[in-house]
Amino acid sequence: MRTRQSLIDVVRGALIGIVEIVPGVSGGTVALIVGLYETLIESAGHVVRGVVKLLADLPRGRGAAGGLQELRSARWSVLVPVGIGMVTAVVLGARAIAPLLEEHPVPTRAFFAGLIIVSLVVPIRMVGGRWSVVEVGTAGVAAVVAFLLTSLPPSRVDDPSLWIVVGAAAVAICALVLPGLSGSFLLLAMGLYAPTLDAVNDRDLAYLGAFMVGAILGLGSFVEVLRYLLRTHWRLTLAAMTGVMVGALRALWPWQDDDGALLGASGSLAPVVVAFLVGAALVGALLLLERVLTTSEVEPAG
User: So where does this one cross the membrane (predicted)?
Assistant: First the structure.
């Protein structure tokens, strides 16, 4: 049973990792879809607090008990297989997704647009009940901000310094835990998307090490803020996430020029419609699978 669940978690992690490579698609959104979001946020919080306590207590002679207790509270049985799936998907997907976006950008964006639109049901369902005026307004403001962010023109920084890599990674990694906002798109806007893909493909350990440091710093700073918001303002935070997901759809409009400006529909619509429907169907299947798995976990034995 545990082995089967671990394999499922590897696949879940792979789904999160593969979409993190695609500008405009959020790994946090997929984490919501596959039922991992709350577990990852809570476990990440325990890991961050554990590391901070170890770094603060050990030099002062207070021992490691507090930090180790926090680390033990994280669900490593989930984090490890999810991490394996994510890393594997990023390494393999970097070689497959980038050429696909370059050679077939219109149907590829349509596919991911279908994926995101159907996945909106997840945060809406998590909010639950009738939305208040404040929640609708919050979602609207978040949508506008996300739309403006995804309207930023892409750039390219050749041979970035490692300090720039650290800073960019710290910002981009926040999108991993914020549904709707794409870390790859933020890297694209900062000019580091192509260099990061090149570093993954070329196994540039210095670049990847700097990126990892930035990711740890950014995640450590942001995850506690997000956990606080979810704990104290659950509905409002999820409403804002929904708005971000809606606004970020701007990045997935199929017809765009090289600078990301929106264009009118052109060419044959059939491949675009098919790709959109396939993406929507995939999310529907994932939501159904997640419900089946959740139901089987709570059913009493025998």
Answer: 12-37, 78-98, 110-127, 133-150, 162-193, 205-226, 238-256, 268-289
